[in-house]
Amino acid sequence: MKVLFLDIDGVVCLHEEGVVNWGEGTGDDVFDEGCCRRLKEIVDATDCKLVLSSFWRLYKKDVLKMLEQLEPFGITIADFHGKTRLLQSRDEEIKDYLARHPEIDCYVAVDDEDFSGELFPADRFVLTDLARGITEEVKTAIIDKLQKP
Predict the structure, then answer these.
(1) SS3 call for 116
(2) Long-range contacts of range 118-127, CB-CB < 8 Å, 24 or more positions apart?
(3) Which of 14, 16, 18, 75 has its CA 20 to 30 A from that of 127?
(4) Backbone φ and ψ of 66, nearest 5°
């Protein structure tokens, strides 16, 4: 099974200079259409499942809000394999998830904060820009990595 560990902020919910991309007067985070479309293209091209590694996973209302915003792009709860547990760091959370799910034979993490390096394999990580999220280049990098176990 292929899995994409998905952060939300800075990946599909964009920010500029640390300011949340708020909906007009709604107080809700607005997901970027292009980023969501490219995320769906990744899922379709690789047949991967998504695992929520974002802090959004900690609150049911945020998970529901996320699903509501992804649904128009064809991404539903069926595309998710689960969510990581809250531990000391993102890399630990992903390693823990992988240890508990031996059916995963290929994975990539996408995040706007770089936690790759000695503790997390750089060849399994794709960094996004907080204000740009999943660009065409990021999409291509994720697809390439998910096609190489």
Answers:
(1) coil
(2) 119/89, 119/91, 119/92, 120/91, 120/94, 120/95
(3) 75
(4) -60, -50
In the chain, the amino acid numbered 61 is K
**Residues paired with 66 in a beta bridge:** none
Token couple for 63: 């998970």
Distance CA 72, CA 112 (A): 24
Residue given tokens 């503790």 in the structure block? 119
Q: Decide: 73 and 44 in contact? Cβ < 8 Å.
A: no
d(CA 122, CA 127): 10
**Parallel, antiparallel, or unpaired for β 15-16 and 19-20?**
antiparallel
Instruction: Tell me the per-residue pLDDT of 15-71, one tens digit each, with 9 for 90 and over.
Output: 765 455 444 434 457 899 999 999 999 999 999 999 999 999 999 999 999 999 999
Mean pLDDT of the chain: 91
Q: What is the pLDDT of residue 24?
A: 41
Contact 94, 125 (CB under 8 A): no
Residue 35 has φ and ψ, to the nearest 5°, of: -65, -40
